[in-house]
Amino acid sequence: MSSENLPQSTEQQLRKPRVAVVFGGRSSEHGISVVTAGAVLNAIDRTKYDVLPIGITTDGRWALTADEPERMAITDRKMPDVAQLAESDEGGVVLSVDPGSREVVYSEPGSVPKALGEVDVVFPVLHGPYGEDGTLQGLLELSGVPYVGAGVLASAVGQDKEYMKRVFTSFGLPVGPYLTVRPREWDNDRAAARARITEFAAEHGWPLFIKPARAGSSIGITKVDDASGLDEAIEEARRHDPKFLVESLLRGREIECGVLEFEDGPRASVPAEIPPVTSHDFYDFEAKYIDAASGIVPAPLTEEQTAEVQRLAVEAFEATSCEGLVRADFFLTEDGGFVINEVNTLPGFTPISMYPRMWQESGVSYPQLVDRLIQAALDRPTGLR
After folding, report:
1. Which residues contact 167 (CB under 8 A, 6 or more apart)?
2. Helices (H), the chain
3. For residues 28 and 220, is the Cβ–Cβ distance under 8 A?
């Protein structure tokens, strides 16, 4: 019998649903995940839900943290860290993989493990590998615990830019020119890999963007103006992922659109535009989170353009089998057509991030957005669906 069909005790029926907010993680996006967690913790309606904050350190330890959102902010241009928030340097949190139990246990060396009670739903705010890529989602499926956002397949596809683009192409969505360099190819014959890249540049022109295949928040991306900058850019991308992508510059406007799952299916928000950031080469990590470069919401588009990008965003959501939420990123090219760049199954989710801002402009406030995602996860069963 699956856990969602187990009879509930009177105590379970009376108590508030318990939400575990899981954040931090082992990826290079650890800090922004902590910032996101602070915003989500601030927004959760404590009259409706009990909350359990669980931080994952950069070395993978699940730590019990205090429910103190004010300590999870960027301070003096520095990102917060789970290690600074953990209640113990050694204690660890364990989630049962028995689908008949959603019990969370906390233990420290030399101490008797302490039961923290059951968790009804997990709100993962992890970005990047080991959290946004299907790994955590697989654990939660094994445990029978509902969770916010995309499932295992959609999370994995949404994290790997190569396979994401392959899925888009198979569904007829417009994708820009790119090539993938896999680890074995680079390790076995770097000269041949470089030759492929320079041939790509000869066909599509400079500049190129070199980016990790499985990272987000624009981390590890370098804009390269000529062949002299390739090696340094590749080294930077491979610091985050041994597989990297090469993309041509698409001249046009950067447009984003949010998708949110409602009872009757996914709907698109008003779109936003990311204007050129004069202090940065492109809309990179520092522009997004440190300098808080602002987008234009709603984007100044015609009614026809708005309808088209909303249609494409929902199609991308469906093509990748997403659930809950997605931010779809596009280029509106000089010829007037939209090209999809990527989807984010767990987009930036601070109040200043584009996804919440687009939904705010669409009539869904940040607290309402958080509540809708939690309720959708509680209503959705784990397992095949």
Report:
1. 157, 319, 320
2. 10-14, 30-43, 82-85, 135-143, 152-159, 161-170, 183-188, 190-204, 230-238, 285, 303-319, 354-361, 366-379
3. yes
**Cross-strand bridge partners of residue 115:** 105
In this model, does residue 136 exceed pLDDT 70? yes
In what helix (H) or strand (E) does residue 273 lie, and over which residues does it extend?
A: strand 272-274
pLDDT digits (tens, 9 = 90+) for 316-329: 999 999 999 999 99
Task: Please give the Cα distance from 291 to 115 (Å, whole number).
Answer: 42
Phi, psi for 175 (deg, rounded to 5): -125, 140
Listed residue (31, 18, 96) closest to 57, CA to CA: 31
Distance CA(219)–CA(157), nearest Å, equals 18
Q: Tokens for 9?
A: 């005790």
3-9 contact pairs (CB < 8 A, 24+): 3/99, 3/100, 3/101, 3/102, 3/144, 3/145, 3/382, 4/144, 4/146, 4/381, 4/382, 6/100
Encode pLDDT of 139-179 as tens digits. 999 999 999 999 999 999 999 999 999 999 999 999 999 99
Poorest-confidence range of 27-31, 83-87, 110-114, 357-361?
Answer: 110-114
Mean of pLDDT values over 283-287: 51
Which DSSP symbol is given to 159?
H
Cα separation, 253 vs 123, whole angstroms? 33
